[in-house]
Design brief:
The protein has helices at 25-29, 46-59, 78-90, 105-117, 131-137, 175-192, 194-208, 212-232, 250-260, 267-284, 290-302, 314-321, 351-361, and strands at 2-6, 13-18, 36-42, 63-69, 98-103, 124-128, 142-147, 150-157, 162-166, 334-339, 342-346. It has 364 residues and is α/β, with parallel strands linked by helices. It binds nicotinamide-adenine-dinucleotide and glycine.
Amino acid sequence: MRRLNVALAERSYPILIGGGLLSRADEILAHLRIPRIALVSNTTVAPLYLEVLAAGLEKVGVGVTPIILPDGEVHKTWESLNLIYDALLAARCDRGTTVVALGGGVIGDLAGFAAATYQRGVPFIQIPTTLLSQVDSSVGGKTGINHPRGKNMVGAFWQPKLVLADTDTLRTLPDRELSAGMAEVIKYGLIRDLPFLGWLEANMDGLMARDGELLAHAIERSCANKAEVVAADEFETAKDGGRALLNLGHTFGHAIETGMGYGAWLHGEAVAAGTLMAAELSQRLGWLAPADVERIRALLLRAGLPLSAPDLGAARYLELMSHDKKVIAGSLRLILLRSLGDAVTTADVPQEKIVAAIAACCRG
Ligand code: NAD
Ligand code: GLY
């Protein structure tokens, strides 16, 4: 088992990564305030993994209230959040109850927001079961739901007490979801870890073949990068750089997700296409060489990710991007690459260059 720490003073917590961790009820019990949990999952993940997790916990005396939500990005809504509140109240869960998320990023974001707000906040544990959630969404405390006008527009920062990533769960993940998670893995190499980018280029075929050791290494390295960034800028308030850099490709990507209708493009797929748009724009600013952009394109292709964005029209992209959470005083801030392994935040990009980059990356 690999163990990392997210260093946030009194709110620090461990990330455990390895096979067979769903059976480690002892690790979970050690982080409970009282032996009672509400276990939030969905109709896809619960049949696969809820029983083994709940049985182990019940064996060590933990009371488990399962809460099973419909599956899908389209359900990351107030309605699902209310289902969680209803179930917590029906089961008379009190402030000692820990909300546990068992699933991908949608379940983690929903359950985390419920934990942040139920009775003004109860403890929370993340048990991520997709590659994307194991390398990104379960770490760092961002929780929330979508609004029809924008992704993740309503939410809270609420750190978990523990992240437990059982790499065995990745065996049942559909190929398309594995690819989507790989977009966020590649992101860490691009924004701050050039040696990791090289390692990914050397090992992408093995990763896509689900080699357990390679996947565990990629998850550990991704989480180590994320933990460092979050520890330095937990609430994404740094003026330049900081946590916002984790959003490489996301301003374009969120526009794709919202513009196409939630669930049509997977989050990771939209991030991949958005990353190429950011790379294209970085090249137009003279920061990346054409060969750098080609390197990114080749790696995303080997990870099975889409390279072209949907043609929503530049005006629609700009309108959707104007709702981005990085907009301050009406000014859009983009995450771009000054070079491979070195991302920057910039508000200083001429609109015509953004429009040209969008046009160059859209299919159709
Ligand atoms: P997801 O949660 O929708 O999961 C993808 C699909 O895989 C779902 O159908 C799910 O039921 C299924 N699934 C999950 N685990 C499985 C398993 N082991 N075997 C088989 N099927 C399994 O999608 P995701 O990619 O995990 O997460 C995307 C979400 O995460 C988006 O809403 C995005 O906004 C959010 N996100 C949040 C953060 C954050 O910091 N909070 C960061 C990145 C992304
Ligand atoms: N996924 C971006 C962040 O956690 O900040």
